Amino acid sequence: MAIIELKNVNFRYGSGTPFEKQALHDISLSIEPGDFLGIIGHTGSGKSTLIRHFNGLLRPDSGQVLVNGDDIWTASKDIRSIRFQIGLVFQYPETQIFEDTVAQDIAYGPRNMGLDEKEVELRVHEALQFVGLNDSYLERNPFRLSGGELRRVAIAGVIAMRPQVLILDEPTAGLDPEGRNKILNELEQFRRESGTAIVLVSHSMEDIAEHVRNVLVLDHGKIALDGTTSAVFSQAEKLVQLGLDIPQITKVLLGLKAKGYAVDTGALTLDQAERALLRLFEKERR
Ligand SMILES: Nc1ncnc2c1ncn2[C@@H]1O[C@H](COP(=O)(O)OP(=O)(O)OP(=O)(O)O)[C@@H](O)[C@H]1O
């Protein structure tokens, strides 16, 4: 069964005011256990609005949001408990860190869930490991960490609640390429080991192409494209029409194809591109 299912969701900001703005139009989708979904779209296309529907931070004007098969907006549902199941990491989550030690900060969520201290301690330890930090960080002051470390502590705070789905809004914003890759690789490992579904909102086509399995493209609050990552990125022209860039690798391969070279343009990672180019060189040499 899907963990999250949206059925014909519509949402507008400022209903009945002169600033009324329809931000989501008839969105239907589902997120299954273990999924790795990327959400992309031009600025203002509705990405943040959409993910805020996943855990009940926003309520649709019409349509349904189901979590594990139940409509979260029926009177009997406790929205707070939904937020423990569907963890949302906001953009620049480190700005929400306010405890004196890393351990206290990560423990905040599990404590709010009413877990006993032994379980809280276990979860803090586990979450820290998932984000690639060891126990020597536990008593450190978060504000004396590097930007990348601080970001990982903030992500660990949500992981410690053991959500079924982990949603991250631009988790790599403002980090250098090495820091970006490190976080994305750790998230991928976390997904594989824990079975948690991950939803990643990103402006970086490189990050999406390299790491996620399925992509959903939003355009003015509507789903413009969705499918496997390679199927979506093979529609380069359409992506450009939607105001999106395409990965640099894809651009190079498409450029070669346009010049008449019979190259496979489906590569999404540097390794795949290298193999595609080697195959091309072999063919040309013969
Ligand atoms: N609180 C709000 N009140 C009114 N309109 C809003 C509000 N928040 C967002 N909007 C509008 O709703 C639309 C969708 O915004 P949203 O923030 O979901 O887009 P986004 O794809 O996340 O953008 P970005 O990539 O810039 O973060 C935009 O037109 C935006 O101006």
Automatic annotation (TrEMBL):
<dbReference type="InterPro" id="IPR030946">
    <property type="entry name" value="EcfA2"/>
</dbReference>
<dbReference type="InterPro" id="IPR003439">
    <property type="entry name" value="ABC_transporter-like_ATP-bd"/>
</dbReference>
<dbReference type="InterPro" id="IPR015856">
    <property type="entry name" value="ABC_transpr_CbiO/EcfA_su"/>
</dbReference>
<dbReference type="GO" id="GO:0042626">
    <property type="term" value="F:ATPase-coupled transmembrane transporter activity"/>
</dbReference>
<protein>
    <recommendedName>
        <fullName>Energy-coupling factor transporter ATP-binding protein EcfA2</fullName>
        <ecNumber>7.-.-.-</ecNumber>
    </recommendedName>
</protein>
<keyword id="KW-0813">Transport</keyword>
<comment type="similarity">
    <text>Belongs to the ABC transporter superfamily. Energy-coupling factor EcfA family.</text>
</comment>
<dbReference type="GO" id="GO:0005524">
    <property type="term" value="F:ATP binding"/>
</dbReference>
<dbReference type="GO" id="GO:0015087">
    <property type="term" value="F:cobalt ion transmembrane transporter activity"/>
</dbReference>
<dbReference type="GO" id="GO:0043190">
    <property type="term" value="C:ATP-binding cassette (ABC) transporter complex"/>
</dbReference>
<comment type="subunit">
    <text>Forms a stable energy-coupling factor (ECF) transporter complex composed of 2 membrane-embedded substrate-binding proteins (S component), 2 ATP-binding proteins (A component) and 2 transmembrane proteins (T component).</text>
</comment>
<dbReference type="InterPro" id="IPR050095">
    <property type="entry name" value="ECF_ABC_transporter_ATP-bd"/>
</dbReference>
<keyword id="KW-0067">ATP-binding</keyword>
<dbReference type="GO" id="GO:0016887">
    <property type="term" value="F:ATP hydrolysis activity"/>
</dbReference>
<keyword id="KW-1003">Cell membrane</keyword>
<keyword id="KW-0547">Nucleotide-binding</keyword>
<dbReference type="InterPro" id="IPR027417">
    <property type="entry name" value="P-loop_NTPase"/>
</dbReference>
<dbReference type="InterPro" id="IPR003593">
    <property type="entry name" value="AAA+_ATPase"/>
</dbReference>
<keyword id="KW-1278">Translocase</keyword>
<comment type="function">
    <text>ATP-binding (A) component of a common energy-coupling factor (ECF) ABC-transporter complex.</text>
</comment>
<dbReference type="Pfam" id="PF00005">
    <property type="entry name" value="ABC_tran"/>
</dbReference>
<feature type="domain" description="ABC transporter">
    <location>
        <begin position="4"/>
        <end position="245"/>
    </location>
</feature>
<keyword id="KW-0472">Membrane</keyword>
<dbReference type="InterPro" id="IPR017871">
    <property type="entry name" value="ABC_transporter-like_CS"/>
</dbReference>
